[in-house]
Amino acid sequence: MIKVALAGNPNCGKTTLFNALTGSTAYVGNWPGVTVEKRSGVYRGKKSIDEEIEIIDLPGIYSLSPFTPEEIISRNYIINEKPDVVISVVDGTNLERNLYLTTQVLEMDVPVIIAINMIDAVKEKHESIDFEILEKELGVPVLPVSALKNEGLGELMKAVAKEAKARRNGKTFIDMEKEIDVAFGLYKNEGKENALFHAMKALENDSLEKEENPDLYQKVQDSMGENKSNCAHEIDEKRYSFLSPLCQRAKASKNKKRSLSDRIDKVLTHRWWALPIMALVLFAIFHLVFASDLFYLNAFGVNFGEGYQGFIELNVGLGSEIETYRPFAGLFWSDGGINSPGEILHVLAGDNETGILGCACLGIKQLLLIWGAPEWVVGFFYDGVLSGVAAVLGFVPQIMLLFFFFSLMEDSGYMARISFVLDRIFHRLGVSGRAFLPMIMGFGCGVPAMMNTRTLGSDKERTKTIRVIPFFTCGAKAEFLVTVAAAVAGVASFDAGAFTFLIYLLGVLVAFFSVVIMSKTSQREKTPPFIIELPSYHRPSLRSLLIHVWDRGKHFIEKAFTIILFSTVIIWFLASFGWAGGQFGMVESGAEGSILYYIGTGLSYLFYPLGFGPQLAHGSWAFAVASIQGIVAKENVTASLETLSANIVGPGASFEDLVSYSGISVGGLTAFTVFNMLTIPCFASIGTAKAELKDRKTLWSTIAFWLITSYVLGSLTFLMIEFIWPIAVVVVSLLLCGIGIYLYDRNMKEKEIEKEEVY
Fold first, then answer.
1. String of DSSP letters for 163-231
2. CA 438, 440, 446, 450: dihedral to nearest 10 degrees?
3. Contact status, residue 482 vs residue 697, Cβ threshold 8 Å
4. How many Å is the Cα radius of gyration of the chain?
5. Which of 86-100, 141-155, 413-427 has the lowest mean pLDDT?
6. pLDDT tens profile 473-487
7. Are the C-beta atoms of 654 and 645 separated by less than 8 Å?
8. I need a labelling partner for 105 at 20 to 30 A (CA). Which of 51, 96, 198, 567 fits?
9. What contacts 24+ positions apart, CB below 8 Å, involve 357-361?
10. φ, ψ for residue 90 (rounded to 5)?
């Protein structure tokens, strides 16, 4: 099998080319030891190629210097794994900037083919490229391709099969013969492979080269004398001094007008218009994916009645205990309004009682009942296993639609503009503009949001972003928030809409404040420089989009499925078994006597500072149990409260009845809301965080961060509302001032240290 590596800048169309070449054979995982995405697949195109060709999509990078994990991965893969051919993918509309990386790859002892991608976009700009000039000057095959339109891919693979049989020695285009000859000779005499590449890195004062070959590195440094401090900068200049005239000779333009992309960018990256347009685009995406009142028609008074009731009616049970279900009721609309496309997909997929999944789960439950299975067996399979499976799979179509829209923005070139526009703001917080998109995705679902952090530049930046994503109120928390807001309105005559808005706002403020604190303390680092190529706008390939969406959706199912299935079975067991009448056995789910009841009663003492502990007249354990089940999935908080309300207050009782019966205060109810909105999001998010964070220590510290933040802020909320809010305000203000003074003092000390180091 021929092994081929794809190398190229971000946004050069490399992933589109990979998808076009591999199709359904692609496999997505992580590179060993890091969370950077690894993609590999097999080319099975033209039958004229006898050998199978394995294609590895290296991370998008700008150079082979060790500034980011992606650059180190790409560099080490080519050097250590020795691919038969490296395809250097170059954006034809950004020739000079993209060829910078190519000149570094050409310094390695590996066959190289240059694929000039987006050739269709070059033609649309009324430009042309002389490939013969490039091929003659660079000394390797240069081929035009359009990954978007599947043009030139067969010729590219034929060239790969041919070049894989040849040998090639590295070549440099830097005009520094004396220094290069000396450095190259030192490495060559030691028998080092890729001697020229290592020599060039030693001349560039490369930190990774210094670490891997300290003796040879030092000899090269000594050979340069006084010029060693300026050598890296000089090499950079000489790369561009070679590329600039070459690209001018190779590229001709018949169009002297500004390109369409430039004209669009005058609006989309405008100083004043960029942010409102971006907010409108993101709002439209989330509305189409998660809204249950499309275009707010119901809010404006357009009522469609009871809505579509479904075409299937299922009767589940035996004898007098028969329950009727309509799995597809409300599929298209309900008395709450028209469903968005994403909500239609969610209802269509369903859970263990609704949609396609509901039909399957209820059918299995009915079979178990007909076969006379014991009650605990029915409960285990239906309430435990099937409930967990449906909880994950029911949201998959909705999440994949979200992936589709974000992939559409990414492949069209607009995602790069969003990152560029927001970088100025986010850079001051300690993260790059790329961090905004995972954060804002948190309003929809934390799982895809955390998966999107793999595009960030460092482990610390990724950790900071993952930790604050749960503070952005997701769709699952919205249901719980609406339920509590109605109860607050009944107890305190406070507007439910205003309460909901304030909780949303609190989450955003806590997120930004947390990023600042982490950037100055535990996750302190110099914010990575944000360098991004703004590619020309182009129409994405539907095939490439669908492959991309499938890869991400499959990754979500694999990572989140196991942990949520395991956790739901455990919670089912704790809620369904206990001591009734002095004997251990099955009890009514969540009722007094269950194991979960005793756990909730014990843990309720921990919530005393938050106002929903033992100080309540009745049912304090219900609030603790609901919070525990919310860790599995936030939908469980509302469901648990409604079920437990009926168990504690009486049949037919609602959560508002439980609020009145328990005697919980407004401060306690608000603190209960704050705690559940900011604490551990759900087991699916924990499973995703485990996959995206660098190690177990970081995962456990992240879980502790969520718990401590929610507990402290919940306690402060209770104190400020209920007892000593003027004193609490003063204490919080003094605390913030103290933190500010500490951070200022630490920052000044670091500046002094930096000055001493420079001196």
1. HTTS--------S-HHHHHHHHHHHHHTT-TTHHHHHHHHHTT-HHHHHHSHHHHHHHHHHHGGGGGTH
2. 10
3. no
4. 30
5. 413-427
6. 776 776 677 677 777
7. yes
8. 51
9. 357/389, 357/390, 357/393, 357/394, 358/325, 358/327, 358/390, 359/312, 359/314, 359/327, 361/386, 361/387, 361/390
10. -125, 130
β-bridge mates for residue 12, sequence order: none
pTM above 0.85, yes or no: no
Q: How far apart are CA 635 and CA 623, in angstroms?
A: 14
* Alpha-carbon dihedral 92, 98, 102, 103, rounded to 10 degrees: 120
Q: Residue 560 pLDDT > 60, yes or no?
A: no
Which residues, in sequence order, are CB contacts of 80 under 8 Å at separation 6+?
none
- For the chain, give the number of residues: 759
User: Would you state the structure tokens that stand for residue 723, as one six-digit string?
Assistant: 């007892």
Q: Is 213 left (phi over 0), alpha (psi -120 to 50) or beta?
A: beta
Residues 658 and 644: beta-carbon distance below 8 Å: yes
Residues 6+ apart with CB under 8 A from 326: 309, 310, 312, 313, 314
Strands 2-8 and 53-57: parallel
Between the two ends of the chain, the Cα-to-Cα distance in Å is 55
Per DSSP, 307 falls in state: B
Instruction: Give 398's strand partners.
Output: none
Nearest to 213 by CA among 186, 242, 240, 181: 186
| Of the candidates 471, 474, 470, 454, the residue with the CA atom closest to the CA atom of residue 462 | 454
Distance between CA atoms of 248 and 242, rounded to whole angstroms? 11
The mean per-residue pLDDT over the stretch 553-571 comes to 66
What are the backbone angles phi and psi of residue 115, rounded to the nearest 5°? -105, 110
Six token digits for residue 454: 């793999």
Asked if residue 638 lies in contact with residue 483, where contact means CB atoms within 8 angstroms, the answer is yes
| Separation between Cα atoms, residue 5 and residue 103, nearest integer Å | 16
Token pair of 296 as six digits: 């707010």
Q: State how far the Cα of 615 lies from the Cα of 623, in Å rounded to an integer.
A: 12
Query: For position 468, what pLDDT does the model report?
Result: 93
* Pairing of the two strands 37-43 and 127-129: unpaired
Give the DSSP H/E element, type plus range, for residue 532.
none
- The pLDDT tens digits of the residues spanning 500-513 come to 778 878 888 899 88
Please give the share of the chain, as a percent, with pLDDT higher than 90.
26
Structure tokens at 630: 């919310």
Taking residue 606's Cβ as centre, other Cβ atoms within 10 Å add up to 12
Strands (E), 62-145: 85-91, 112-117, 127-129, 142-144
In the predicted model, what is the mean pLDDT of residues 187-210?
A: 92
CA distance 75 to 61: 10
Residue 561: the pLDDT is 63
Residue 8 phi, psi dihedral angles, 5° rounding: 175, 170
Which residues are paired to 40 by β-bridges?
27, 56
Determine the Cα–Cα distance for residues 579 and 105; give it in Å rounded to an integer: 69
- The amino acid at 255: N
Q: Which two tokens stand for residue 101?
A: 């990386």
Tokens of 172: 């440099």
Sign of CA dihedral 17, 19, 22, 27: positive
